[in-house]
Amino acid sequence: MNRIIEYMLPPQRSTTASDVDSLFTFINVSGFILFMGIMITILIFVIKYRRKSEDDVTPVITHNSILEVAWTVIPIILILIVFSWGFRGYLTLTSPPANAYEIHVSAASWLWQFQYEGGGSTMNEVYVPVDRPVKFIMSSEDVIHSLAIPDFRIKMDVLPNRYTTTWFQATETGESILYCTEYCGTGHSEMLATVHVLSAEDFEEWLETGLEVDEDMPLADVGEQTFTSAGCNACHSLDGTDRVGPSLLNLFGSDRELVDGSVVVADEDYIRRSLIDPQAEVTAGYPANMPSYSGRLNERQIDGLIAFIKELQD
Amino acid sequence: MADSSQKTLRIREFPIDENPGHTYLNHEKGILSWLFTVDHKRIGLLYLGSVILFFFVGGMLALLLRTELLTPAQSIVDADTYNQIFTLHGAIMIFLFIIPSIPAALGNFFLPMMIGAKDVAFPRLNLASWWIYIFGALFALYSIITGAVDTGWTFYTPYSTQTGTSVVSMTLAVFILGFSSILTGLNFIVTLHKLRSPGLSWSKMPLFLWSLYATAVIQILATPILAITVLLLAMERILGIGIFDPSLGGDPVLFQHFFWFYSHPAVYIMIVPAFGIISELISTYSRKTIFGYWAIALSSLAIAFIGFLVWGHHMFVSGQSELSSVVFSFLTFFVGVPTGIKIFNWVATMYKGSIDLKTPMLYALAFLFLFTIGGLTGIMIGALSINVHLHDTYYIVAHFHYVMMGGTVIAMLGGLHHWWPKMTGKMYNEFWGRITCGVIFLSFNMTFLPQFIMGSQGMPRRYFNYVDQFQGLHQFSTIGSYLLGVGFVMMAVYLLWSLFKGPKAPSNPWKARSLEWMTSSPPTHHNFEYTPVILHGPYDHHKPMKEFRMGVAEESESPDVIEIDKDPA
Ligand code: HEM
Ligand SMILES: [Cu+2]
Ligand SMILES: [Cu+2]
């Protein structure tokens, strides 16, 4: 039984996960017993009371008070247990500790942006410390999204007109997937992010260096850094293989056929437009689900990306 | 009024014409005699044909979805098309198939017959309901042609106010369909109150009718809310009035409250009629009095009532206040109790019965299996802390397919087979009926059982692409859905064969006791050639069959006329 439950659930990587899983197990086990009880009774009845002849006579049994009280009261007790257990867990899930590390999450169709206390930000990647409560303060720039991290057993809708919050405390270092679980259009199923859980020291170090923008960095290197920090790699490869979007290898200078049939040359301007207003010119054969980076990347990052893409030729 | 002083009623047995020459099927001929009929039986068949057509369309769309999900990336359609297909599948299955399915098709046909009436109270209104339904369906079709809808059947704002697709015509379709539903409900309530035959007291009413009564109450009370909601949505889209869209100053969560205030009770519009059919089937094929008649009848009403108070369980992570989540979770569990009571009563009915595993009974047993899983997993997602993890994952998809398809569709198939001889006057092939039931049962589990696992592991719903980890389970599920398709094709084949070549059905092949079996198969135009009089309950299998065929005798008739109290209740 334990093996089955373990297979059914994602790994437990937060402090709250084990309580949720215990309740999951409790309901599954008691539900299974109840279910088997009913099914075996039915099976026995079907075999034992199978019609023997066309003139079988059956007794008239219209009710039985003891039975009826039993099967009303026992389920009520069971559901009260389940209710209060779930209620307790929910209270924990909705009450972030006061000392939690706060990260502001902004959702937009179809990307996640995370802003750290120091001021830096990342896209589609979020870095958090292990063994320390982390609180997400979330809002959306357009429609409703929902932030879910199955490994942590958390989920909360992200709304356009108010802040919602959720929190967790990761128990081990590693990577977990973050999904958007409120349907939000074309790119909904691509709206994923990676949660990197780092040790306390690694996290501090990452805050120092990972978010740093080096003034003297060559443009193409800024572009390379932005390519990961802005989450382009989720949809674009650099080696010629197709992902959600076209590979950026050999893109620069090539002729692009758009869905409306027209053909444009992929020059600097085109790449810029692809970032600022991706829906305006959609490449034929791909979905129109690239998020707009307008306002999310500064001029230097955009120039950097252009320089970086320019160099991707083989 | 003239006979109000009369204390006794003269009754006699009326033999059944086993070879009716004149039936409702040949009463009038030609396509127009069908399209403009006011005969509840023909309207029932019009509905039956229409819902089967939409089930077919919705089912084909489902197979497209499942095919796309064979691979983690794009397989046959693009993301936008996928989103439109799941929206259409959901909307067609809900609004065009399952809501009208049992009440409007089987209910229309059998409700008047089961109370010994000639027709429903308002036959013309009944015809109007069907036409309104068709009109609504045309609107839905129009929205598909003009760009389809990609919002999901839930139309959540602000996505639905911002997307470029034809949301307005789809919401108008839903609006129109709602009226059809309300009118049918109204008709049923009046019919049940006013047209019951002499002796048919509320305590002798078949449980199928109690379930239709409870359903009709929900239809009348809840459907207007949906109408208001979609109208507000249309106003926001057309006139730019800010109600739900925050960029116009509205509140998107308000929409969810409105929507689920209808759609949760609507879940009971979908499932309660199925309960009614199961009561009929289990008693008939166990040839035994139903256990806990009042418990079953009243628990339907209890479910209908509590069902109005639990809508917020769809919104535990929506940003509604935590207090409301807690209250909604608490109330939700109390729907579980009357539902459990029904299951126990059905099992108890089989105790010491004379159980005949005919096709309809197999469907009833399949229902008990599948619906119990649906119900228990409902307890799972009603628990707050678990709901946070499982909400909007495939666990939910599996849960509602177990309830709606494993529950309602399976019960409807049971009812369809049970009443097939009465409706068509033909028998179907018992062997193929049983085999097909087995195929559908197994492939259904194959399709949806893996989805519980995927959902628990975190696979979100409405996902066009997914992470590689889930591919094995998705493929298993897709193969299951193909087999399910095969099952339905098999059913279509033997039922069509029965329609054209099947052997003639006797008037009461299952030795049932309720009134619809006390007339010829197929019934005559007016159902009964006399006014039936009811002496016993619909499940009194211990009483001789002849006492179920009584009717009002003419003054001059004798000698086998019996005199009874006019109002035994
Ligand atoms: C023939 C068997 C069926 C199959 C293979 C099937 C398959 C599916 C699939 C793959 C989805 C999309 C899940 C997602 O991405 O979230 C779906 C959604 C849905 N199905 Fe079915 N389905 C079947 C029958 C039914 C029936 C009989 C009903 C109701 C009467 C139904 C009602 C729904 C609803 C309401 C949705 C949700 C649509 C939405 O998310 O907007 N399905 N189904
Ligand atoms: Cu989304
Ligand atoms: Cu609900």
Features:
heterodimer; A: 314 residues; alpha+beta; Helix Hairpins; Immunoglobulin-like; Cytochrome Bc1 Complex, Chain D, domain 2; 3 domains; 5-stranded mixed beta sheet; 12 strands; B: 569 residues; mainly alpha; Cytochrome C Oxidase, Chain A; 15 helices; disordered N terminus; binds protoporphyrin IX containing FE; binds copper (II) ion
Provide the β-strand percentage band of chain B.
under 5%
The CATH first-level class of chain B comes to: Mainly Alpha
Q: If strands are numbered along the chain, what order do they take across the biggest sheet of chain A?
A: 3-2-1-5-8
Strand order of the largest sheet of chain B: 2-1-3
Overall mean pLDDT of chain B: 91
Largest sheet of chain B: 3 strands, antiparallel
List the uncertain runs of chain A: none
The total domain count of chain B is 1
The radius of gyration of chain B is: 24 Å
Bound chemical compounds: protoporphyrin IX containing FE, copper (II) ion
Q: CATH architecture of the largest domain in chain A, please?
A: Sandwich
- CATH class identity of the largest domain in chain A: Mainly Beta
CATH topology (level 3) name of the largest domain in chain A? Immunoglobulin-like
Percent range of helical residues of chain A: 25-40%
Shape of chain A: elongated
Secondary structure layout:
The complex is a heterodimer of chains A (314) and B (569).
Chain A: H1 2-8, H2 17-48, H3 65-94, E1 101-108, E2 111-115, E3 121-123, E4 125-129, E5 133-140, E6 145-149, E7 154-158, E8 164-169, E9 174-180, E10 193-198, H4 200-209, H5 219-229, E11 255-257, E12 263-265, H6 268-276, H7 299-310
Parallel strand pairs in A: 1-5, 4-10
Antiparallel strand pairs in A: 1-2, 2-3, 5-8, 6-7, 6-9, 9-10, 11-12
Chain B: E1 8-13, H1 31-35, H2 40-68, H3 79-114, H4 123-145, H5 159-162, H6 167-194, H7 207-239, H8 252-286, H9 293-306, H10 322-350, H11 359-382, H12 384-390, H13 394-424, H14 430-457, H15 471-501, E2 550-552, E3 562-565
Antiparallel strand pairs in B: 1-2, 1-3
Helix pairs in contact in B: 2-3, 2-4, 2-15, 3-6, 3-7, 3-8, 3-13, 4-6, 6-7, 7-8, 7-9, 8-9, 8-10, 8-11, 8-13, 9-10, 10-11, 11-13, 11-14, 13-14, 14-15
The structure holds protoporphyrin IX containing FE (HEM) and copper (II) ion (2 copies).
